[in-house]
Design brief:
Blueprint (H helix, E strand, L loop, with lengths): L6 E7 L2 E6 L6 E5 L3 H7 L6 E4 L6 E7 L3 E4 L5
Antiparallel strand pairs: 1-2, 1-6, 2-3, 4-5, 5-6
């Protein structure tokens, strides 16, 4: 089971991956530097990726993903 304290909800719109809210500065609808294909590659923990939020330059290591959430290696909520 995915711990909700380490999860980041996201949406895919067209070819953009958007976080509903930045866990660092609280900005809403943040465009993430990921493509939908890269998110699919992370399903099941097959690939890990560090992302930098463009709104505040906060960094987060994503270790897993599913259809609704990106899973970070540390608590973000």
């Amino acid at each position: 089971m995915i711990p909700l304290s380490n999860s980041l909800p996201y949406d895919v719109l067209m070819q953009d991956v958007i976080a509903q809210e930045c866990p660092f500065c609280g900005s809403s609808n943040v465009l993430l530097p990921l493509t939908p294909e890269e998110v699919l590659d992370m399903y099941g923990g097959a690939r890990k990726r560090t992302i930098v939020f463009p709104c505040c330059r906060g960094t987060l290591r994503i270790i897993d993903a599913d259809r609704d959430y990106l899973l970070a290696n540390r608590a973000i909520r």
